[in-house]
Amino acid sequence: MAMNAEGAQTWKRLTADNIGKSIAIVLDNNVYSFPTVNAEISGGRSSITGNFDISEAKDLANILKAGKLPAPARIVEEAIVGPSLGQEAINAGFLSFIIALIVVLLFMGFYYSKAGWVADIALFANVFFIMGVLASLGAVLTLPGIAGIVLTIGLSVDANILIFERIREELAAGNSVKQAVKDGFGNAMSSIIDSNVTTLLLGIILYSFGNGPIQGFATTLIIGILTSLFSAIFISRLIFDSMLEKNKDVTFSTKLTANAFKNVNINFVGKRKIYYIISSVIILAGVVAFTQKGLNFGVDFKGGRTYVVRFDKDMETGPVREALAKSFGSAPEVKTFGDANQLKITTSYMIEDNSEAVDGVVEGKLNEGLDAFGKHEIMSSQKVGENISDDIKVSAVWSILFSCLLMFIYIFIRFRKWQYGLGAVAALFHDVLIVLSFYAIFNGLLPFSLEIDQHFIAAILTVMGYSMTDTVVVFDRIREYLTSNNKKDLEGKERNSIINYALNSTLSRTINTSLTIFFVLLAIFIFGGEVIRGFSFALLIGIVIGTYSSICIATPIVIDFDKKEEELPKK
Question: What's the distance, CA 507 to chain centroid?
Fold first, then answer.
């Protein structure tokens, strides 16, 4: 046996004091051997002699390797939510979900008439399947998990919208309803499969490389993609076939929506430099705001403790911060959280102390500083150790980067041009930078918290999933139009005209899908409560930016880089 310097000194003293006595070798309260000390052992190297056979010697060596070291478990990350705050969150979440669902159902029925009600049935089935699978797995539904469900509901509606828009095109071409339904499902299949496969790959990578809330998001996303595909493709098709066999009238638009987006002709390609400038200005403004104000990192990323405290009267943050500075030795971060009688207090006081009693000490200091302000109640608390916060940051960054790499490879293989992969990944980075820029610009200006925490990462992942889905659908339509017009090489004004036509033809699908998801998020933002307001704000910005980038950023990048590649041999 070999020991380090500290162990050697202790072992020397023990053996010197116990010559002629036995030293028990114990593992899990069982004595496996008790050799006798023959002399003082110095230098840290010891040996045991006796009449051992090979198997006995190996067993003893394994026991010594296992050892019996004191390794107490310490809580390095925890979240505690009081029953009243938890019930409030449940009520607010349920209300926002019901309102969002009603709005989406009514919108689909209003825009697509009877076909919209068929999509609503498929949507109900999808939610039922998701909840059933999650219940069978015993999964815990967290905020990032809800984000995954929101995205999959959007994907489910998106698949139906893709199919309906194709059917409307077939009907406009003069086909019968039965033939239009058949061709519509067939023509939309490529876009549906491509968009869902890319998002499924994103979910698998996030589940493999992420941890905690990121895995929760990935779990619901993977389940939701599979159930939404089944609901949108098979259930909807069965209902349509049943209605057509019974000669029932099937309509795909109302009088108000029949001609929507038909005469739209926006020159997206010609205006791409304007879009580049707009995005650059927003990102530049975000960089300036970041250098001046920075970002508001939550305890997930910087370590520390956060408490949500409710008082029996409205409170000002200044006096509370001064009082707690005396208790903690340094001023904590104090912000109004929702109503004026609620404060969110963040401190790094004794965060490096791993003793068992430290949590009680910190909470005692907190109450000591707050007692001067009257009756108060700690509604929730969260603690994240510095090591855990570092792990969260590293896993989040690597999962996002690896997801982008895999997206690039898939799109390159699927569309056979690296420019498509570059355009899609560039759009993803564009969306992340824009959302971060808005968080930096509006930091401290809005009446709710804009924290960069695990929930924000879940929001970014949701935006990435939606943006990738939207971009792939646009690319698929461009490829289809270029192939049918023999313009695969992407050159000339005629090429730009065809691409513009393709982009405008996807506009109805893009806007309708974005609106349905936007309605869901707006309901969550307004009625979902203070706990998820910052989270839903990030999603609201991200969905708008994701819609914009899929048309105005991803496609122009494909065009510009493809042109540069063609010009290189001429030089």
Answer: 26
Distance from C-alpha of 225 to C-alpha of 100, rounded to nearest angstrom: 20
Q: What pLDDT is stored for residue 84 in this prediction? A: 64
Give me Rg for the CA atoms of the chain: 31
Q: What share of the chain is helix, strand, coil (3-state, %, to 5)?
A: 70, 10, 25
Specify the pTM.
Answer: 0.70
Distant-in-sequence, close-in-space partners of 434: CB < 8 Å, separation ≥ 6: 279, 282, 283, 286, 541, 545, 549
Q: Which fold has domain 5-66?
A: Gyrase A; domain 2 (3.30.1360)
DSSP at 379: E
Give every CB contact of residue 339 below 8 A, 6+ residues apart in sequence.
530
- What DSSP element (H or E) covers 244? helix 236-245
Q: Could you write out the DSSP letters of every residue in 332-373? A: PEEEE-SSTTEEEEEE-TTTT---TTHHHHHHHHHHHHHGGG
What are the start and end residues of each CATH 3.30.70.3400 domain in the chain? 304-384
Ramachandran sector of residue 211 (left: φ over 0; alpha: ψ -120 to 50; beta: rest): beta
What are 283-342's pLDDT values in tens digits? 999 999 999 888 877 776 777 788 888 888 888 888 888 888 888 888 888 877 777 788
Alpha-carbon torsion angle 281, 451, 143, 307, nearest 10:
-170
Q: Please, what is the Cα angle at 500 between 275 and 551, to 5 degrees?
A: 40
Neighbours of 27 (CB within 10 A): 13
Containing 313, the helix (H) or strand (E) segment is none
CB atoms within 10 A of CB 287: 14
Local structure of residue 233 (DSSP, 8 states): I
Going by C-alpha positions, the residue among 419, 569, 411 that lies closest to residue 499 is 419
**CATH 3.30.1360.200 segments of the chain:** 5-66
Question: What does CATH list as the number for 304-384?
Answer: 3.30.70.3400
- CA atoms of 3 and 6, how far apart (whole Å): 8
User: How would you classify the pairing of strands 333-336 and 77-81?
Assistant: unpaired
